[in-house]
Amino acid sequence: MKKLFLKQVMMNRVLYALIPISLMAVYLYGFRVLGVIAVSNLAAFLTEYLFARQKKVPKVSMAVFVTGSLVALTLPPTIPFWIAAVGSAFGVMFGKMVFGGFGMNVFNPAIVGRTFIYISFPKYMTVQWLKPFEGFPGGFLHWMQPDNITAASPIITFRDTGVMESFTKISLGTIPGCIGETSAVLILAAAIYLIVTKTAKWQPMVGCLIGFAVSTLIFYGKSPLFFMLSGGFMFGTVFMVTDPVSMPKNKKAIWIYGILVGFLTVFIRRFSLFAEGFMFALLLANVTMPIVEYAMSYKPKKK
Predict the structure, then answer these.
(1) pLDDT of residue 249
(2) Which residue has the higher pLDDT, 118 or 135?
(3) Which of 164, 211, 254, 298 has the most CB atoms within 10 Å of its CB?
(4) How far is the C-alpha of 137 from the C-alpha of 134, rounded, in Å?
(5) What CA–CA distance (Å, rounded) separates 118 from 160?
């Protein structure tokens, strides 16, 4: 088995950071979420393995399990297993392997898979959100909350009614939402762990927060805290914006990259039909930054 996988210590640390978030998801929504995570990872692994078999030394990167886990954690608890599998496989195939595999991809594979699901199966991504279990032991004794116990996510509620969910609920994560995106406290703890262990850079995270905060004040005229903690912005900022492969390498470009993602997230939320803008913001930033980096490094020849 050791010969099958590339040794990637940094990717293992990202997986460790996702464990508390996954356990919280079980508490909130039941053990079905582990099924979604398992199916997504299996599909991601098999997809990369099929590509890796074509090489003389077939090895699968540990990063593929990060992709599979991130795709799963950005999906609703009610998502059909087959959709999670298709989205994860699509993300690995078209977000990574078609570019040549690990280290060659322009886009974050997990966000490619999530965006594919969002566009292809909007009913499952925008209509039904389960209310989380309340009190101990929560979902640890259940497979899933009954389908008829539903409510809108905080960001959708605000968009439709202007009502903001309480700070306590959006901080702890006891709100309807995607599997791993609701608990701001655990996501923040994961960010600290990733920064301290030098697994992720803090600059793109801070850049995102700056871009998001300033844009929120401009476009909404309200405190950015609620908007930061609602939806997938915090989760994406910590686990996807910091992807070392699709992130710029130039130090100044990293700041521009983070600020651009934060700005575009708010801009899309405010002026489009989509309640959640992060995934489109990240894809746009991924495709834009190579041009920015080239422009920053370009030096015209002297005549």
Answers:
(1) 86
(2) 118
(3) 211
(4) 8
(5) 20
At residue 152, the pLDDT reads 60
- The pair phi, psi for residue 9, each rounded to 5°, is -60, -40
